[in-house]
Design goal:
The protein has helices spanning about 10-25, 30-35, 55-65, 95-125, 145-155, 170-180, 185-195, 210-215, 230-240, 255-260, 270-275, and strands at about 40-45, 50, 70-75, 80, 85-95, 130-135, 165-170, 200-205, 220-225, 245-250, 265-270, 280-285. By secondary structure, the protein is an alpha/beta fold. The strands form three sheets. A six-stranded parallel sheet has the order 6-11-10-9-8-7. A four-stranded antiparallel sheet has the order 3-5-1-12, with helices on one face. The longest helix has about 30 residues, at about 95-125.
Length: about 290
Amino acid sequence: MVKPSRVSIKQVERIVKNALAEDLAFGDVTTEVIIPSALVGKASILVKKEGVLAGIEVAKEVFRQVDRSLHFKALVKDGAKVHKGEVVATIEGRAASILKAERVALNFLQHLSGIATETARYVEAVRGTKAVITDTRKTIPGLRLLEKYAVRVGGGRNHRLNLSDGVLIKDNHLAVLRSSGVGLGETVKMARRRAPRTVKVEVEVESLKQAREALSAGADIIMLDNMRVKDMRKVVELAKRRTMLEASGGINLNNVRSVAEAGVDLISIGALTHSSRALDISLELEPR
C-alpha cells in the first residue's frame, strides 16, 4: 500500500460542496416524497471488481456535508488492493440522508479508484526498469487535485499540476516562434535565460534532429513525443544521461514495457486521468 500525500481538507470540502450543489440543487424530490424522515438504516459500500481503492475520505466528506449526524466508518484505506465482494465502508443514520449522498459519493469513489487501479497496472508493467509513470494535465476541470491524488495512490507520480509548475515547450509554441524565424534551440535558450533558475525547462521533440538541438541548447528534460521505440533508444544513447528523457504519446499497456526498456526516465500517460474506467462500486442500504 502506498502512502501518498493528501489533498488538503479545505480543497476536498470545496470540491465536494460543488458536486453536491450540482446534484442537490433543488433537493431530492424522490426521497422527500416517499422516504419517512425518521427512518434509519445502515448502508454498505461494496466493491464489485478487483482494483485499488482511492477516495474513501472524499466519500466520507460527501456524507458529512449532507448530514453531520451520519456515522461513516471506513474499513479500508486508500491504496489498498480491494476484491470483488469486499465492503470498504459502512454508513449508519437517516436513510433519506444516505440516499441523498449516495450518487455523489460513489461518483468520486468509482472515478478515483478507477484512476488508481489503472495507474497501478502501468506501474506494475514497468517494474524493474528505471522508468517512472506520470500523469499529465489532461484532467476533468475542477477535479485535477483529486485525480492527481489518485495517480499517486496507484503508485504513479505527478507531472505539472498547472502551467506555473515548469516550462514545457510544445509543438504549438515552436510553431508560433518558427513563424518569426526562431528555432527550437534558440527557444530553449530563451526559456533558460528568462525563467527562474529553480524552474525546469522541458521541450517536446519528434525526431532525432530535434533531440540533438534540445540537447545542445541545454534542455533539462526532453519529451519524446510519439517516437518509435528504436528512435527512443537512439536518443537515450545520444543523451548519455546528460538530461532527463520523457516518453509520451501513443503509450498503452501493450507497449509501455518496451518504452521503459528503451531507457527513458519518465513515461507520461494522459489516459490515466482522461480515460480510466471507473471501478465498479455500489451502495446497499438496509432499513432498521
